[in-house]
Amino acid sequence: MMYRNKTEAHWEPLLMIAREELGIESFDPVGKPGADIRMCRVEDIGRALERAYDLGLLVGHTVTRAEHAHGHCA
What we know:
Elements: H1 11-22, H2 42-69
Helix pairs in contact: 1-2
């Protein structure tokens, strides 16, 4: 999978979650076939997904509150 825009605001928090929960230091391909394949415990993957989901909820809530505060919602 190719990642298009690594400068988006969500990129760093997701990489931080990947580092802390899965030991993944980068989403960039290493270059050698098979070098990007890792073994991860299902529990660790679940925890990483839960943290990413929680981050999405928090960001969504923050954006919605900001829009309401600035009168951008109908």
